[in-house]
Amino acid sequence: MKLKVLTIGAIFFLGEVVSAQQKRKDTISTKEIEEVVVVAYGKQKKETVIGSNVQIGSDNFKDRPVTNVANAIDGAAPGIQVSAGSGQPGSLPAIRIRGFSSISAGNNPLYVVDGVIYNGSVSAINSLDVESINVLKDAASTSLYGSSAANGVILITTKKGRKGRDVVNFSLQTGISQRGVSEYDRVGISDYYLLNWEALRNGRLTTGASATTALANTWASDNLIGNLGVNVYRNVANNAVVVNGVVTGDQTLKYNDFDWSKPLFKTGLRQSYDLSYAGGGEKTTYFASLGYLNDQGYLVKSGLERFTARLNVESQLRSWVKVGINLAATNTKTENSYNGADNNSAIINPYRFSRSIGPIYSPYSHNADGSNIFDSNGDKVYEWLGARGANASPGRNAIYERILNSDITRANNITSRVFADFKLLKELKLSIIGGYDLRNAYNREYQNNILGDAAPAGAASRTSENTYSVNFIQLLNYTKKFGSHNIDVLLGHENNKYTFESFYGYKQGQVGANNDDLVNFITPTSLTSYTDTYNKEAFFARANYDFNEKYLLSGSIRRDASSRFAPDKRWNTFWSAGAGWRVNKESFMDNFKFIDEFKLRSSYGEVGNDQGIGFYAYQTLFEYNNNAGLPGVVFGTQADPNITWESNNQFDLGLDFAFLNRRIRGSVEWYKRETDGLLFNVPVPMSAGVPSNNVFRNVGAMYNKGIEASLTLGIINGEKGGWDLTINASTLKNQISKMPNGQPEIISGSKKLMEGRSIYDYWLRQWYGVDPSNGDGLFLLDPALASAPVAGQDKQINGVWVTNRAARAKYDFSDSAIPDVFGSINNEFRYKNFTLSALVTYQIGGKINDTNYALIMTGYPQGRALHADALNRWQNPGDVTDVPRFDSSLASQYDVASTRWLVDASFINLRNVTLGYKFGEDVTKTLGFSRLDMFISGENLYIKTKRKGLEPQENFSGETTNRFTPARIFSFGVNASF
């Protein structure tokens, strides 16, 4: 076999492929050039599209174990950042398109399903029902959605039937899920006792409570077990566990079941079955599907069970009228992690608990001889009443509480779309589209009466939420060709009404066992309900023009209104204009036969944002209250009646290219997004008496800009196989250009907002290091305090003023959570009937504030686990290390937020690998199939980070939390058609 081999930087032709093969490639190239892509309120030829529109076909994710279809976007295109969804099956990942348009308002993209704005749960959409996903990134592509489009738009198009022979498809997937991010390395039992002993001994010396080291050693030995609560060694006296800095005794353990993660984390099972029927005749096409998914998470008592059904029908009733209906119904049961996996500060957060509890504590109770205690069912009895150190959550047991508590949500989702197209004239079409989305969710929570927050009474709650979304769209489309001139004009009107109903009830005082219905509880504590509504209306128009598909022009305008704003503020106009030039269509390019596509395009426009500010942003709200049985009204929310849209102005400049029969193709884009009239949650003085001490106002400005590049290389393209390599890379710069009047800076956690800085620049105490002479942890001294240094706290080292007191430390800007470069690398290999794809996502630069690591690097543990880096602590004068001495009197000084905990956020993640095999006709015909494929696939297979246990893709702010980390999934599947 003769191959064409393409290497980066040079092209080597090692032979010629047969003429028939070349013709086949030319046919494919033509098909690609004439590809039609989904755009706002319609479709358009790909070569005439001016905006930044990325289309992800179903072939890219049909064989992946994707429970939430939005996960298929990760790594698919440049300019899109995806924060990995949690390990909770079905969770929605956070997505940012070209940076961050707002500080206090929403940054989530708009989802549109089958042409209608979608307010339902994305996890309710079966990924095998999806034909394509389009991500609209610039104003030229998003502006028709006006006030909803500041954060980009994600168009999801479901499958339809096609004319011809009916096809039945069956898909089966089964696999397992495991914890995808490893735990931090932590010290073992002996080292743990020793480090706690050192903290007590050094603290005794620092405070002067012991005059000599010998006395401090003895005191630490006598108080070690009293401080920690547990001596796990057999035949070793409590005061002899550590003597003079040495762990003594025979060190034989009384028991050895200290692993809290083993009972919490398991191997989850994932299985899905999907059946679809598609086809059609001359007038009617149809697609129907049924799907079942059972995705049991790797965390105990987590999972998603989902039933889906879909029916899409289109019919050409007459030559001048076409109608269609898309109906989808989903029923889900989600078992959640009650008040734990997504609650960073909860005591029973399973990640925080298992990560931070010392290695000397067992989840189970034991007899005096060390044997386990069993209950009447033969199960091990859990321990929570025994002695523990103050930082080991005495009186709690995350495993047992997970078993006793429950949090289950059942939801029904109905999505419906109906349309009618009327051909009024040959060039004129009227479309009427209706959409109705309904979601009913019923959540039941139970808190046990044995241990935990609700003990000894026990408690239960019920939450019922109903969401209704009604859309009505009318479109008038005029398309005309005048010789080489092509015009396409769209006029439209859209109404959207969103209603949210909520009911919540909470009762305490459990009566009987094994019944968590509210009737089994006697004391009502909370009972409330409310209804929120949100209405939008818009008039819009778009005009596209091209001359011989060579010179391209596009313009759009939308007049939008939102009920979030006052009547005189709610209307605004959004627009865009764009131009393109397909240089390869020019006559002077005729001699450059190797150039298939060379298109320059540019656009500018304005879109809006009204997310994240509540439904009644312009109204000051009051709340009813019960005051000793008497009704009352309390101040709820202070509003600015002049609040209005956040305006996002976008400029985009792009180049699309393809060479050598599209064996080299890609794009380069530069963009700038400027947000004006920022919806800013402005702090106000406490003396103003405003609840939450802030008010939403339109103040400030910010911009994002960056470069996006995508390159696909057909490295090998032969008769029997091939290799395609796609590389995506993006840069992002974010900067605040204007702050609220009178508030040049606002400090929020580890960040400070001010002009000239990014919203994710860190503002932290400046860590200097460890003093080799005495092991003190040192910060840079606040320059304002250097004129009056405090003896024993402040001093100069090499001419630099430093301090061992956090309160005297210098604050300053220190790096950013935003990476220098991020992107993906995708390899696709083909050989005969085999295919292999490997997707790698990566990030270079940026910092993470690793507070999870800080939690287990304290210099005075008191029952809290310790990272293995603690073994590098300072011990003797002259030691050079970055870990201060363990000292019970000073540890709290060094545990505070500072640059000590910033770590490089670079990573490389093997996101997906899929190996597939397509059986030949000799096998499929024998078995009665028209197509038969099998595959194995893996998600989140490997991640390399600066520190084991670190999760750089957790969020965009660079703050770590104790969260339900993503799952590593292995899956086997079969696709059959007949």
TrEMBL record:
Q: Which Pfam families match?
A: Plug, TonB_dep_Rec_b-barrel
| Keywords from the named record | Cell outer membrane, Membrane, TonB box, Transmembrane, Transmembrane beta strand, Transport
- InterPro entries, alphabetized: Beta-barrel_TonB (IPR000531), Beta-barrel_TonB_sf (IPR036942), Plug_dom (IPR012910), Plug_dom_sf (IPR037066), TonB-dep_OMP_SusC/RagA (IPR023996), TonB-dep_OMP_SusC/RagA_CS (IPR023997), TonB-dep_rcpt-like (IPR039426)
**Which part of the chain is the TonB-dependent receptor plug domain?**
47-153
Q: TM segments?
A: none
| Annotated compartments | Cell outer membrane
Task: State the source organism's domain of life.
Answer: Bacteria
Membrane topology according to the record: Multi-pass membrane protein
Residue span, TonB-dependent receptor-like beta-barrel domain: 363-734
Name the family. Belongs to the TonB-dependent receptor family.
What is this protein called in UniProt? Answer: SusC/RagA family TonB-linked outer membrane protein
Q: Which organism is it from?
A: Chryseobacterium indicum
Traced from the root, the source organism's taxonomic lineage reads: Bacteria, Pseudomonadati, Bacteroidota, Flavobacteriia, Flavobacteriales
